[in-house]
Amino acid sequence: xxxxxxxxxxxKRSLDLLSGKWKPLILHHLFQEKExxxxxxxxxxxxxxxxxxVEQLQxxxxxxxxxxxxxxxxxxxxxxxxxxDTEPLGPALQILDGWGKNR
Length: 103
Hints:
It is built from 6 helices and 3 strands; from the N terminus they run αααβααββα. It is an alpha+beta fold and 103 residues long. Strands 1-3-2 form a 3-stranded antiparallel β-sheet. The model has no long low-confidence stretch (mean pLDDT 90).
């Protein structure tokens, strides 16, 4: 495999999109909850600042991994859910979870 083939490798591209300290945990919670408010997600993630969580969520939105739903009102409510194209990752993440627990 040459460098150009490596750059276009599906595994590499997938791991690049999902890499980040908090992205796997965000995905874990979204696969469990299906739809979750920002504050609930933040409370489930120990030691992450709101700023960093927002940055990670924005990156995931830009890559169409998750969707942000904002409901108007007072106070406004913001929800996150998986993008429909992300659903097939569920079984793969379960396999990775099992593999990682046995290491």
